[in-house]
Automatic annotation (TrEMBL):
Gene Ontology MF annotations: coenzyme A diphosphatase activity; metal ion binding
All copies of domain Nudix hydrolase, residue ranges: 29-164
Species: Actinocorallia herbida
InterPro entries per record: CoAse, Nudix_hydrolase, NUDIX_hydrolase-like_dom_sf, NUDIX_hydrolase_dom
Keyword terms, alphabetized: Hydrolase, Magnesium, Manganese, Metal-binding
UniProt xrefs under Pfam families: NUDIX
High-level lineage: Bacteria, Bacillati, Actinomycetota, Actinomycetes, Streptosporangiales
Name of protein: ADP-ribose pyrophosphatase YjhB (NUDIX family)
Xref: CDD domains: NUDIX_CoAse_Nudt7
Gene3D superfamilies on file: Nucleoside Triphosphate Pyrophosphohydrolase (3.90.79.10)
Necessary cofactors: Mn(2+); Mg(2+)
Length: 204
């Protein structure tokens, strides 16, 4: 059986002690939130990753459940609403462990990652209008050495790839948030992600 109590205690302490970087509401910056949702499958804890529907925003791309903030919402409320709308999962505010760094996406959104647990929330039921498929990535896979790959670019930069399974290579911004979750929450390290390179095809 999954060690929910142990994960909640460790993850809550690490996220709570992490001095996250929050971006200001500058002119032209749109706000969004995603959820790094930890769920159980076959007795193992993992993060839920989705593949977007073939039509709509970011068609066919790997993503975390989430979307644009609506007027009057906190970013935590945005994340939980989007999780409910996209995957049918109801999570209480008490199941939110905290937030990681805002990510300045090239699309013009400042994305806030919300770390939460879906203990007892049941199986996700994806909304086919927005989600093609749902994938449970075990925490042991995310924490493994082979999950992180850096690609040297001709311009001298390095491109992050999160390699989480066959055909599952994820770049920034989603890959950046998964990497920070891995480093901060799973491994207890302090890393920043705002300057990670985003492939051109993510800029929409």
């Amino acid at each position: 059986m999954a060690d929910w109590a142990g994960f909640r205690e460790t993850a809550g302490r690490r996220v709570g002690g992490f001095g996250r970087v929050a971006l200001g509401d500058a002119d032209g910056v749109r706000r969004a939130a995603v959820v790094l949702c930890v769920a159980e499958r076959d007795g193992e804890l993992g993060v839920l990753v989705i593949k977007r529907a073939n039509r709509g925003r970011n068609p066919g791309q790997w993503a975390l459940p989430g979307g644009r903030a609506e007027d009057g919402e906190t970013l935590q409320e945005t994340g939980l609403r989007e999780l409910r709308e996209e995957l049918g999962l109801e999570i209480a505010e008490a199941d939110v462990l905290g937030m990681l760094d805002d990510f300045p996406a090239a699309s013009g959104f400042a994305i806030t990652p919300v770390v939460a647990v879906a203990q007892g929330a049941g199986e996700p039921v994806p909304d086919a209008r927005e989600v093609r498929s749902v994938h449970h990535v075990p925490l042991r896979v995310l924490a493994a050495d082979g999950a992180v790959n850096w690609v040297d670019r001709p311009d001298g930069g390095r491109l992050l790839q999160m390699r989480l399974g066959p055909g599952m290579t994820i770049h920034a911004p989603t890959g950046a948030m998964l990497w920070q979750f891995r480093e901060v929450v799973l491994l207890g390290r302090d890393v920043r992600v705002a300057d990670l390179i985003q492939p051109d095809w993510t800029r929409n």
